[in-house]
Amino acid sequence: MTVRHPTRQLTEPRLPAQEMPFIQLENLTKTYAGAVAVNDVSLDIHKGELFSLLGASGCGKSTLLRMIAGLVNPDSGKIIIDGVDMTQAPPYERPVNMVFQSYALFPHMNVEQNVGFGLRQENIAKSEIKDRVAAMLELVELADFARRKPQNMSGGQRQRVALARALVKQPKVLLLDEPLAALDKKLRQRTQFELVNLQEKTGITFILVTHDQDEAMTMSGRIGVMNTGALQQIGTPAEIYEYPASRYVADFIGTANMFDGVLGREEEAGVSIHCPELGHDICVARRGLAGDGAPLTVMIRPEKMQISLAPGADENVNQVIGTVTDIGYLGDMSIYHVRLASGRVLQASQLNSQHTSERKITWQDQVVLSWHADNAVVLVQ
User: Fold this and answer.
1) Which one is predicted more confidently, 332 or 22?
2) Do the domain assignments include residue 9?
3) Of 251, 276, 311, which one is at a domain's C-terminal end?
4) Which CATH number covers residue 365?
């Protein structure tokens, strides 16, 4: 996976300054036939935030979303929205609306009728329904499609109809369960930014469930990474990518070179770590990790590694020697697979600033991989 660094923020989420979180999940647990789907999850989400729940299929993220919606009852725990305990409230009494992966549009209704369906169910005056539907179609840029049936629209247009139908009821929270999964790659990428812009215009709190790392990284102010029903880490996209809290998170988000080591002595430049797979000790910048001899895992992202044909002159840079066994061309960058003497294969990426015919490094070349001490992340086992 090629991770694009988030364009929305680099270090801090854009959260309103407030003391009380808008949504509070307290020790939520849900089991099915003795199997734990959600395991004692606590989470605070702020008003106006676009928060993503990210994880592999079966990790519990959709179950957690459905508990917020009221479609699934928790075995224990609390759900508080805008200061009100909604744990036992039915779905229609909660200030939330939900967009499903299938969109669930009515095929016999046109766009205007689909968007206004929920308002008609609430017996709102026809004149108000007309005004609110028209305003919402303008917002999602579908005003010219008001009379069209869903089956005569593209996937991206149907997705916007589903969004308009959910937002026209003016919920405090919009829940999105894999809303872009049915779209092709280019349309999905374009729609991601449309969703972000829509969320910023409305100011509504969005909670997005996705298994797509790129999607979560691109769209979110913060991400909660889930595994086996529990939250592994909560943070901004940059925090989770650059400083994963566990080996699972490091491996799940993007591509990572990881190898086991043993903590050695502290030196002026950093901490020495003995890594048999690399053939010699390396240096990392972080100190105070654990006691001498403690086992740990070192993670280095491929883009943090420099690849060259000759060793560098800087003695403070970590270096290993290997042979190029494979090259993956991705257009804007190339991925190099380098086999070390130990047999371990590392990945390094390099931006393609030259044409492929001018590439200096090719298959079977002996190369040097190098990285600075502060580019290695240590995960204590």
Assistant:
1) 22
2) no
3) 251
4) 2.40.50.100
Burial 143-170 (b: 16+ CB within 10 A, else e): eebeeebbeebeebbbbbbbbbbbbbbe
Instruction: Spell out where 200-303 has E strands.
Output: 205-210, 222-227, 230-235, 257-266, 271-275, 280-284, 295-300
Please indicate whether residue 288 or residue 98 has the higher confidence score (pLDDT).
98
Confidence of residue 288 (pLDDT cuts 50, 70, 90): low
Point out which residues pair with 260 in neighbouring strands: 297
% the chain with pLDDT above 90: 67
CA–CA separation, 318 and 348 (whole Å):
14
Same domain, 217 and 366: no
What domain range is 332 assigned to?
255-380
Residue 331 falls in which region: left (phi positive, over 0), alpha (psi -120 to 50) or beta: left
Q: What is the mean pLDDT of the chain?
A: 89
CATH code for the domain in which residue 67 is found? 3.40.50.300
| Predicted TM-score of the model (pTM) | 0.86
Structural domain contains residue 45: yes
In this structure, are 277 and 369 located in the same domain? yes
Coil/strand/helix, residue 16? coil
Greater confidence (378 vs 72) lies with 72
Q: Is the pLDDT of residue 170 over 80?
A: yes
What confidence tier does 359 reach under pLDDT thresholds 50, 70, 90?
low
**Residue 118: how many CB atoms within 10 A of its CB?**
16
Query: Domain boundary residue among 208, 226, 251?
Result: 251
366 close to 310: Cβ distance less than 8 angstroms = no
Number of domains in the chain: 2
Q: Which residue has the tokens 């999940």?
A: 25
